[in-house]
Amino acid sequence: MTSVYMPPSVRRFEPLHMVFSTWVDHLPFGYDIVAALRPKLLVELGTHKGLSYFTFCQSMKENEIDGLCYAVDTFEGDAHTDKYDESVFSAVNTHNRQHYHGFSYLMRMLFEEALQHFSDDSIDLLHIDGFHTYEAVSQDFANWYPKVKPGGIILFHDVAARVQDFGAWKFWDETCAQHETFTFGHGFGLGVLRKPGGNRSADHPLLKLLFEGSREDDGAALRAFYVHASKHLENTRKLKRLTQQKAEG
């Protein structure tokens, strides 16, 4: 696989924004899928402290992608994250202004309220990561699927998380039987869905690996690669912290 495709996350990705989040297991893939798709329009539903969203934005900037990014969230929390104070939005807003001014916008509103701001068949990359009950994920998908371009990508977080009343896993199991999908099972899981249509002839190598692998072990190799990439990124961060501590000590 590496002889055909060397992901940009391996070559140069060092997260500028690190906060506690179960999305940490998917940062290299998040960076790479943006570089592969080169979206003109990217929308995230459910941003919280911004780990996934700013990974997408960093990839947009570092890979010189001419597009717009929107983060939709009330930044008030919910029953799964608990309520949080204004400091969360303040930190996200500050980082956004400092690093991604001009192409990244925070839409502080409910997902349903944001729908009117996007045309059908307009979104290249949609990330669904809001309230994780089966009903909520189903509704988010039903509402936003028409907004995604033919051939566009939808990411679903927590598709392997069977905790509390999370139901993303159940929705994902049903969805995989009806759509073109790829599943990463490590961490809390990440589902990748491709909407039918679009020009497949010019597909990026990563998209080919996700959706056109001819053998089961192709998918297994891709999954193993991103598990390794995530661990490598974590070890690199730990080494950097230890080096800094020794220098300061």
From TrEMBL:
Enumerate the UniProt keywords alphabetically: Methyltransferase, Transferase
Recorded hits in SUPFAM superfamilies, A to Z, give:
S-adenosyl-L-methionine-dependent methyltransferases (SSF53335)
Query: Signal peptide position in this chain?
Result: none
An example GO biological process term is: methylation
Q: Which InterPro entries match?
A: SAM-dependent_MTases_sf (IPR029063)
Kindly give the Pfam families that the UniProt entry links to this protein. Methyltransf_24 (PF13578)
Which superkingdom is the protein from?
Answer: Bacteria
Q: What does the record give under GO molecular function? A: methyltransferase activity
Q: Which PANTHER family match?
A: RHAMNOSYL O-METHYLTRANSFERASE
The name of this protein is Class I SAM-dependent methyltransferase
Native organism = Pseudomonas triclosanedens
